[in-house]
Amino acid sequence: MLALLAAVAAVTCAKAEDQTTPGNSGAGGSNGAGSTTTAGMGTAVQNTTTVSTVSGTNGSTATSSASQSSASTSTSTSTTGGGNQGGEAGAPSETTGSDGGSGTGGSGTDGSVSTTGVPPDVIENASVVLLYKIDSSTATTASIFMHLYLRNQSDDAFPLGAAEVRYWLDPDGRGYTLASHYQGPGIGDVTLSKGSSGDDDYVSVTFEEGETLAANTGDINPNEFQLKLDASGGNFDQSDDYSFEPTYTTPTEHDRITVYLADELIWGCEPSGACAGDDPGAGGAGGAAGAAGAEG
User: Fold this and answer.
1) How many angstroms separate the CA atoms of 241 and 271, rounded?
2) Which residues of the chain have pLDDT under 70?
3) CA pair distance 126, 265, nearest whole angstrom
C-alpha cells in the first residue's frame, strides 16, 4: 500500500512540475500612427507542488503537499496595434516636401526698335531741316497760308511715314478749318489735325505710312507741302503765334516749326524751350528766344 501511494505521489509531482499557468498578456498599444511602443509586462506564474512523505510514530504515513509559486517576468516589444497581437508597423512619420518649381522670367525688349518701328540708330542719325515761307506777312488775317519744305541732309533715306511737323499758334479761342492744297512728289499725301501740349496749341502734319525722303536732298521744291488755316469767323491775330515769322518771305530754315521722328523731337524748339538735341530734362534756350522774336 505504501509503495502504491509513493508511486502515485511521484506521478502527481511530475505532472505538476510540467504544468504552467500562462501569464496575462501585456496590453498592446492602440492602433494608430507608426511610432514604436513597449507593450505591458506579462507575468507567467509557474506553480511548483512539493510532495513530502512523513512517517508517523504509529506507523501511519501522512502525505502533505505544499505549493510554491515562482514568477518569471518577460517584456515584449511590439509596434503599435491593438489586442494581444502586435499591429503592423506604421508608416514612417517623416515626410519630404516637394521642391518648388522654377519660375519663368519675363523677357525684356532689347531696345532695337522703337514703338513706331523705327530703329534707334535711324532716329539718332536723322538730319532733317524744315524751311518756311509765309504767303502774307500781315499779322491780322482771316486766313493763314504758308509753304513748308523738308530737306534730308543724311546719307540715308528718311522714314517720312513716322514723322510729324507741328506749327505752333494761339488761335485766341477761335474756331478754324485746315487745308493743304499742294504736296510735292517727294512728300505724298498728308493728314492735318489740331493738337495741344500744355497751354500751347499746334497744327499737326503727318505723312503716309511707308513714305520716305530721298537721301541728300538737293532741290527742295519736290518736298514742298502747303498749309492753310481759315478762321470760322473774324480774324486771326498772329502777332503772338509762336511759329509765325513775317520776315520769311522766301524759303528759310525755321526752328520754331518742329519736326518729330517716332515721337522724338529732331528739329527745332518747342514753346516750352525744349530743343532737338537737348539732354533729357534740359530745356533749350531756343524756344524762349524764338517766342521773344515773334513778339518783337
Assistant:
1) 10
2) 1-116, 280-296
3) 11
Residue where the block lists cell 524751350: 273
CATH 2.60.40.710 in the chain, residue ranges: 120-295
Q: Which residue has the cell 505544499?
A: 66
Q: Write the Ramachandran bin of 262: left for phi over 0, alpha for psi from -120 to 50, otherwise beta.
A: left
Matching residue, cell 506749327: 167
What single letter denotes the amino acid at residue 181?
Answer: H
Predicted local confidence at residue 279, as pLDDT: 72
| Per-residue confidence (pLDDT) for residue 22, from 0 to 100 | 46
pLDDT of residue 117: 83
- Which residues have a Cβ under 8 Å from the Cβ of 239 and sit 6 or more positions away? 139, 140, 294, 295
**Which residues have a Cβ under 8 Å from the Cβ of 127 and sit 6 or more positions away?**
152, 153, 154
Q: What's the pLDDT tens digit per position in 113-133? A: 455 688 999 999 999 999 999
DSSP 115: T
Superfamily of domain 120-295, CATH level 4:
Endoglucanase-like (2.60.40.710)
Backbone angles phi, psi at 294, to 5 degrees: -70, -35
Query: Rounded CA gap, 296 and 288, in Å?
Result: 12
Radius of gyration (C-alpha) of the chain in whole angstroms: 57
The reported pLDDT for the residue numbered 114 is 53
Closest CA to 135 of 176, 179, 165: 179
β-strand pairing of 77-79 with 36-38: antiparallel
